[in-house]
Design brief:
The structure holds 2 protein chains of 2 kinds.
Chain A lengths: L5 E4 L4 E6 L2 E6 L4 E5 L1 H9 L6 H11 L4 H17 L3 E4 L1
Antiparallel strand pairs in A: 1-5, 2-3, 3-4
Chain B lengths: L23 E5 L25 H14 L3 E5 L9 H10 L3 E6 L6 H7 L8 E7 L5 H7 L5 H13 L4 E7 L7 H12 L4 E5 L4 H5 L8 H17 L4 E3 L3 H16 L20 E4 L5 E2 L17 H7 L1 H8 L25 H8 L11 H4 L6 H10 L1
Parallel strand pairs in B: 1-2, 1-8, 2-3, 3-4, 4-5, 5-6, 6-7
Antiparallel strand pairs in B: 8-9
Helix pairs in contact in B: 1-2, 8-9
Classes of the chains: A alpha+beta, B alpha/beta.
């Protein structure tokens, strides 16, 4: 049976507001700064507890008028990138 | 009268280019120091203020975490004079920041090295800067009394032996200017550091009131510029500078070259734009007073724990006054209005300008190319330049 992956924000990261639509998420252990937009910030803030990609997209669907599949595609890409730099942690 | 025709601005409304939160903080965690450096910018009345207790710093770091501040530069006084330094560092780490330390190096022992191995103290350290002002005790100790050379070098070697991210700063002054060649050889060959930075003792703190001359004369400055340019080549760029004689030498050489090519300016220059620090960071003195830069201690903006950092960062008139300098064209200054080189100029460090002139909206004569090449016949300017140098 295929296990469902869950995503959670790395508890050591911080979010800095640069402008009303531009933020920086920072991992002080790896010294990585990732620029993100409002949607990215919404995801990172939502991930204070672990969620599946479907749960994340359902949450985002309430905030943005985008079709679910596009949302899932973009979110998946975002999670992949942020997991690589230990901003988000992925567990099965 | 030095009249300024400045565009109107509301001092409590930040310009659009100001980030909504600072990226870093400069914190002086103690006013105490075991040395009495001849040019210390943090001497003078600063040492009369009392150190803030740990709990106040901890609460400030929580505020920094909430704002997403990423880095802190920790200095003093001498940071290692603070008995609870590692508690302060651990609090910075707990509040999601990285840090750099500025130190004279003399209090760093094997025990200190071991203490850094605990927790994330090493992992989160960006750099530790040690000040070395001479190739020998007799020269270094004149700038940094009493008898600090051996202890500073021991501290530096310990850090290097344990592979810390060490940087070295040499502050060029009247005591060490003719030792530059030996300093480069000592640091880069004998000690074996990768590179070192230079700056120049300026008109701050103890340099303003010292009984002995510590600031460079123009002849000495010219010697430092020529020597550092040559040494930088010889050592393949292992000597660097953001300010001081080497930086000045590059700036003037770039202007000279551009003028020969018929250019009238560099992109992004021509206004009082030399310092971008106030767009990225805020400073806190050891008694908790917030200032735009720790070299602008008189521009007080409130106290941590009493005034919200976010409010001060965005709306304090002093913070915005320093930021707004970059909108002031140099041609608006009476000293520069007819200068053909304003398009190349940035006006110099606001703190130096403030210290020398008592005003923010002025230029530092030491950064003035026209005065440097003797192309300004205005007697008042020449007199001002002579006074400044």
């Amino acid at each position: 049976m295929k296990s469902i992956q869950k995503y959670k924000r790395n508890h050591i990261v911080s979010i800095r507001c640069v402008s009303s639509s531009f933020y920086e998420v920072f991992n002080p252990d790896t010294n990585t700064v990732v620029p993100i937009n409002q949607t990215g910030k919404d995801i990172i803030e939502f991930l204070t507890s672990a969620h599946t990609i479907n749960e994340i997209c359902t949450y985002l669907k309430e905030l943005y008028e985008v079709d679910f599949e596009t949302l899932k595609e973009d979110t998946s890409e975002f999670l992949k990138e942020t997991c690589t730099v230990f901003i988000v942690e992925c567990s099965s | 009268m030095n009249s300024i025709i400045a565009p109107y601005y509301d001092p409590v409304v930040p310009s659009e280019s100001v980030p909504l939160a600072p990226k870093s903080v400069d914190i002086s965690i103690t006013g105490k120091c075991n040395l009495k450096c001849a040019y210390c910018f943090y001497a003078d009345e600063m040492q009369g203020l009392s150190d803030l207790p740990f709990d106040r710093w901890d609460a400030f770091f929580q505020e920094c975490e909430d704002l997403g501040v990423q880095r802190a530069t920790v200095s003093g006084g001498e940071a290692f004079c603070r008995p609870d330094l590692f508690r302060v560092i651990d609090s910075l780490i707990d509040h999601k920041m990285r840090y750099s330390l500025l130190s004279n190096g003399t209090l760093i022992t094997k025990k200190t090295i071991n203490s850094f191995e605990e927790g994330k103290r090493r992992l989160r350290m960006d750099s530790i800067q040690i000040s070395i002002d001479g190739s020998s005790a007799s020269i270094h100790n004149k700038s940094r009394p009493p008898d600090s050379f051996d202890a500073a070098v021991r501290g530096l070697r310990l850090l290097l032996d344990h592979e810390f991210p060490v940087t070295v700063r040499v502050t060029i002054n009247a005591h060490n200017v003719y030792d530059l060649e030996n300093i480069a050889s000592f640091l880069l060959e004998d000690i074996g550091i990768k590179s070192f930075g230079t700056n120049e003792a300026d008109y701050f703190g103890s340099a303003r009131c010292g009984a002995q001359r510590v600031l460079l004369s123009e002849k000495e400055r010219q010697y430092a510029m020529d020597t550092l340019l040559r040494l930088q080549k010889e050592y393949h760029g292992r000597i660097n500078a953001m300010a001081g004689p080497l930086s000045r030498a590059h700036m003037f050489s770039d202007i000279e070259q551009a003028v020969r090519e018929g250019k009238t300016g560099f992109s992004g220059r021509g206004t009082l734009c030399s310092c971008g620090g106030v767009f990225q960071k805020i400073s806190v003195l050891h008694d908790g007073t917030m200032v735009p830069c720790n070299m602008l201690p008189k521009l007080t903006m409130g106290v941590i724990g009493i005034n919200p950092v976010s409010e001060v960062w965005l709306h304090h008139p002093s913070m915005n006054a320093v930021r707004q300098r970059r909108k002031i064209p140099l041609t608006a200054l009476s000293t520069c209005t007819d200068c053909p080189y304003t398009g190349f100029c940035t006006g110099g460090c606001p703190a130096t300008v403030m210290s020398k002139t008592g005003r923010l909206l002025a230029r530092d004569p030491l950064t003035c190319y026209r005065l440097y090449i003797g192309d300004d016949n205005n007697e008042q300017h020449i007199e001002g330049y002579a006074e400044a140098v």
